Amino acid sequence: MTQGNHSLTDRIKNIVVAWLISSLLFGLLAIFVYVQQKDAAKQSVQAASELIRLELDTQLRNIDRFLKQAEQLNQACDGRTISLMREQVFVNPALSEIGIVDQSGRLLCNSFGRLDPAVQTTEPIKQPGLRYHGPIITDFLQVPAFVLARTRSDGFEVNALLPTSWLSDTLDITRHKNLAFIALLDGETGVPIFLRGQYTLPLGEVIFPMRDEMEFEGGFDDGTQKYIFARPLAALPQLTIMVASDAKQLSTIKPVWLLTLLLLYCASLVGLTMLLNYYDRRVLSSRALLLGAISRQELFNVYQPLVDATTREVVGVEVLIRWQHPLEGELSPAYFIPEAERDGSIQELSVYQIEKALSELRAIVQSRRNFKVSFNVNGYLLTCPDYLQMLHQANELIPQLTIELTERDVLSQAQIHSVLQSLVEQGVEIAIDDFGTGYSGLHYLQSFPIDLLKIDQTFVASIGMDNLQSPVLNAVIEMANKLDKKLIAEGVETAHQAEYLSRQGVTIHQGWYYYKAMPIHELKQIC
């Protein structure tokens, strides 16, 4: 596949991935908005119910306060009694009339004056507490009214008439948005005392008698879905305020939210696509840079000699790679190997390194068949057929070919066990680089076909120093001897370190005490 097609495919892939992620985020956000809006709609219904209940309770408490004081009213309906009742009607806008009824149910007088003869009404209920009945048509005003009453200790009743016009204003459904109905109900039977809107009750739900606050969302007997909130009045618990809203008002997302969600979705889709494309361009650009450097032969090998400390003879090399960058100058592997591992160009780079080494070392290895040549390999490369084929070609020219893996590569990729075994059968030596700094143990050293351990330079540096690494070095050497593993010491920088390691039986050294990594022409001078 060409790079252009690869780039196009990646862009299409990025758009699809961004679309999927954006759709998921859009769905989650839409659910969140739906839930929040539904809760807000329910709270709006509850707020309307509470506002109406508060207005009713306030007025009923004021009226009941007067009715509790009605023991002072003279049943003979003298002038002072009429004046007190008339004054109460004037100061309380919810009242249209106040009357006194005797034990037999005869209305003796009202706030308009004494009745002669008395008008027969319903006999008072001989029980304490505030109660209601009605609505009725008043004789004087000829308007529907709602009656509140209290029975006095002498059996007389004082009642107060609330015109339905006042209730109509208090329960005005037009003052509130999106309500299906507002009802003042008898809490025992559910019969509406006063109603605004189309009253209906839940299907299959027994909600009366109602003693406490309740809410319900579901199907109603008019075939609709509704949400209701109901709560008894505090001043008169026999009465309940019920407010309802159509369920569609709860579940419909407002246009402004739909527009906001759509804009967020588009922004997330564009943003994610740009981010993914930027990442791919970065990867592709780094890959293109490295592949371009390979084609221009800006990458070159240097060779770190392996020295036999007993003879000072160079017995092999570790092949390292550098980049002669046209702008940055010479770059060490730390600047480009991690990027190559991320973008996949590590395979091309490693194949190039081996090809370069085979060309440069050909004369040395042909004249010295025991000359060791070592390459650093990560676990990913051991899964690449092209790289493994190149290792096979290198092994045909270099009898003492070694590959160095880190402990992490060995332990994190158990599937490479068979690959390593195959390489060993071909004659390739397997080494663990920086041994002791990872997390391998005897189990892995015995399970994997490992021939050589390279002692990490941090342990070599501890020689002659009293620190935590000092005893570890001796332990590593002892363990290698017991497991019959060969050892190479890295980072040897002083004569004292070299002598100590030699006394411990570690005779192959690598480090600046002997040589630094060098280009091929310098290596040929010492070999």
Automatic annotation (TrEMBL):
Its EC number is 3.1.4.52. Keywords: c-di-GMP, Cell membrane, Hydrolase, Membrane, Transmembrane, Transmembrane helix. It catalyses: 3',3'-c-di-GMP + H2O = 5'-phosphoguanylyl(3'->5')guanosine + H(+). Its main location: membrane. InterPro entries: CSS-motif_dom, Cyclic-di-GMP_PDE-like, EAL_dom, EAL_sf. The chain crosses the membrane at residues 12-35, 256-279. It is a multi-pass membrane protein. This is cyclic-guanylate-specific phosphodiesterase. It comes from Pseudoalteromonas viridis. The keyword Nucleotide-binding does not apply. Residues 283-527 form the EAL domain.
